[in-house]
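ESCALATION

Customer reports they have been waiting on this structure for their group meeting. Please prioritize. Original submission:
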Amino acid sequence: MSAVFDDSPPVMAPHRKLSADDYHRMAEVGIFRPDERLELIEGELIDMPPIGHFHAGLANDLNRHFAPRIDGRAVASIRNPIRLGLHSEPQPDFALLRIRGDSYKRSLPTAADVLLVVEISDTTVRYDRTVKLPLYARHGIPEYWLIDVPQRRVEVHFSPEPEQARYGEARFLNDGPLAPACFPDLALDVAELLS
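Update from on-call: job pushed to the front of the queue and completed.
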């Protein structure tokens, strides 16, 4: 008797995508545990891994570098959600946002408010590259930094091409100066950041 292998794609059962409003209502009625780390990406709830010490330290370093230098020019945001369309609400590790009179108390920032988004990837490099990068590009986020902790490098993606859900240009840095395109005067040292 010979074995028969079926290499056709798996059949997906019909399922419903959550909207960002559904997601917030679920949180309001206590469906999620207070300690749960979740993101809503394309209508799916994604469990996020715990944040380790190096990851947390990098976010603190970005905040310490940028926050005092952008006062009055932009808002530094750490691990706060961004509303991207009806079905996505990622929580990037760090973002630079346009200044808004209400300090984002009345509504979450949208893609139009974002100047730079940064994901710190220690255990999520593949996910941040194959899921988050296209999501940010599709919504026209002007600049995306993926800090690849295992490789000790920063991927800088810019020139979004929303129709193709990709960035037109990328640089990969292990050292040297790096500044957001919106604030070229705010360079940080990549090697020092990753040390």
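Sent to customer with the following note: Residues 4 and 105 are 58 Å apart (CA to CA).
Escalation resolved.
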